[in-house]
Amino acid sequence: MTSLIYTVSKERFGLAKKKPEKPAPIISRRQRLIKQTRKELSSVKRQYRKAKEEEKEPSLSEVQHVVKKARTGSVPGPNGIPYRVYKMCPGILQKLWTLLRVIWRKGKFPDCWKRAEGIFAPKEKDSNDIGQFRTISLLNVEGKIFFAVLAKRLSTFLTDSNYVLTTILVLVSGESEVTLSTMLRKLRRYRKELILLWVALLLLALVMIFYRDAGIKILVGSRHQLWTSHDTDPKVSVEAKAVDIPPTHGYELARRVAERCSSYVRNRISGGIDEGVFGSFSSENIDLCIVWKVGTTFIRRLFLMKQNPRFAKVISPYEINFSEDYVTGSRIRMDLSVKRFLFVRNPYKRLLSAFVDKLMAPNPVYWTILGVKIAQYAKQSPSPLSLACGHDVEFHEFIRYSVLTLDPTQRFRPGAPDGHISSQSSLCKPCHVKYDFIGKMENFQSDSIELIRQMRFTNETLDVLSENGDMLSAEDAILDSCYQPFDPDFQAGLLKCISFYEALKRTWRKMQIRGLIGPEDIPVTEKDAVLVTQDKLFKLAMESRDHTTQTERLRMKNNFYREFYNSIGAEDLSKLRAIYAEDFMLFEYDHRPF
């Protein structure tokens, strides 16, 4: 049937003629290259979409994050362009991001990134020997931004791959600049020798790869000199300003205190010399009168480094555990060969610090010593648990108890004054003991450097604390705070009075009041509290700190301060002014809290 239909149709309609086949096109070499390039581009795009985040080019958000976290006041490198340009001009930052992506793809770094502008800064007065100077190396901020992105990715990769302990990486991740020596000092605090060796070798390899043609420009007098690895003769460059350590005014304050004392009638100054507590730290020709809540933990570590052979090779005092004890002296020595130091603090801020650290924080030892007494004598209608634990003292109750204890007009005093609330002038008797140097907690970063100089620490210790003192202090304070809820000596007394979750919340609030972390609530639920470790709490605190600026944390700290003192009645404030009158007058503090 099929054959019949085909035959009839062929006779009637005929067959369609086949179109001649077109000859195969001749592809030129250029077309072949274009086709191959398109295939490669498609393949690269597929691989890029599948690639891990750390293998991709720097994103704009990563660059913006690094620039946002960088200090606006950082000194620029040889090209003179500061971070402020990129902070204030988003358009210029986007152009820089485009250039950084090109550098990432090509894997070749600009020569200007391999040049550092070094400046000799004196470490002490009347420096005239090369060993009395330290070198500050200034790099171009563009290179620092690029390598900050790389460092952040590297730390994330190491953390996610479990190559390095999270507790250690938290200390170094997210920083714009991490020098080899700084990272090693931080790692050394945890005594992780194998990790320490691995990170040291890794960083050394990075330095060799990125800076094999490195050069440095040193300021000598008013002229720069430039050396590179290929140069034999120095090349003179342009003039620049030297960087110096901020001056300290502790000697001037000590002189002014002595003048005020001499102008006063002696019997108007509190008591005689025999009434002084006079706890002191002593080392060779240095004596320091102890005033609690005025940098005593840090100062104790300095004297441990000098007096205890176990810490003879320690570079940074922050490498010493905060629980290490030191046997204090009983009196300040009056020898002419001894230099006498004293550090003081605004009395209002010292009181708040004592309350937060000893009573509001999870500290069952001081709840028993001080909190129970406050519940008995200053709390209205205390509960049986309050009288047994002393765990729920409010700030206005603490102030009321301080007034009852310290006010000489009170007929009944509930107990002897605690050293944390006693006036600084009553503890150290500045009108009976001539102090050579009186530093302030408000200027502790610069004033403590003078103590370190006089104690004749190594140049390396001086460098570490001059350059990274604030950062190390904040990390140490967070580490100390996070340890409190997990302190074995605290556990039994703590859980009798409050829950573990409450202890975590109090620790978090303590760090917020001190301006160490951000304002958000602790990111832990009551159900998950039992799973929180000290390392986990420390990591959460450091993340909170990294997500806020110093300005934001300082504003929050000041708001807390005002909130606490607004809760104090006018009568108690008036009595506080009278109790601490000598501190206000001698040490030049305002007698009003704000």
Describe this structure in words.
The chain is an alpha/beta fold and 594 residues long. The chain folds into two domains: 55-236, no CATH class; 250-586, no CATH class. Helix content is 51%, strand content 8%. The protein contains 24 helices and nine strands. The protein has helices spanning 2-13, 29-50, 60-69, 83-88, 90-106, 141-160, 166-172, 180-188, 193-210, 250-263, 296-307, 347-360, 364-377, 384-389, 395-406, 424-428, 444-454, 459-483, 488-495, 500-513, 534-546, 550-566, 570-579, 581-586, and strands at 115-122, 133-138, 215-220, 223-228, 235-236, 280-283, 286-289, 339-344, 437-440. It has a five-stranded mixed beta sheet, with no helix packed on it. Strands 6-7-8-9 form a four-stranded mixed beta sheet. The chain is elongated and about 135 Å long. The termini are far apart.
Q: In a few lines, what is going on in this structure?
A:
51% of the residues lie in helices and 8% in strands. The chain is α/β, with parallel strands linked by helices and 594 residues long.
Keywords:
594 residues; alpha/beta; 2 domains; 5-stranded mixed β-sheet; 4-stranded mixed β-sheet; 24 helices; 8% strand; elongated
Uncertain stretches of 5 or more adjacent residues = 165-180, 189-197, 211-247, 265-277
The major beta sheet can be summarized as: 5 strands, mixed
Give the DSSP E fraction (strand runs of 2 or more residues): 5-15%
Shape: elongated
Measured distance between first and last alpha carbons: 112 Å
Kindly report the average pLDDT value.
80
Radius of gyration: 33 Å
Number of strands: 9
Query: Helix/strand/pairing class, anyone?
Result: alpha/beta
Strand order in the sheet with the most strands: 2-1-3-4-5
Portion in helices: 40-55%
Helix count from the secondary structure assignment: 24
Overall number of structural domains: 2
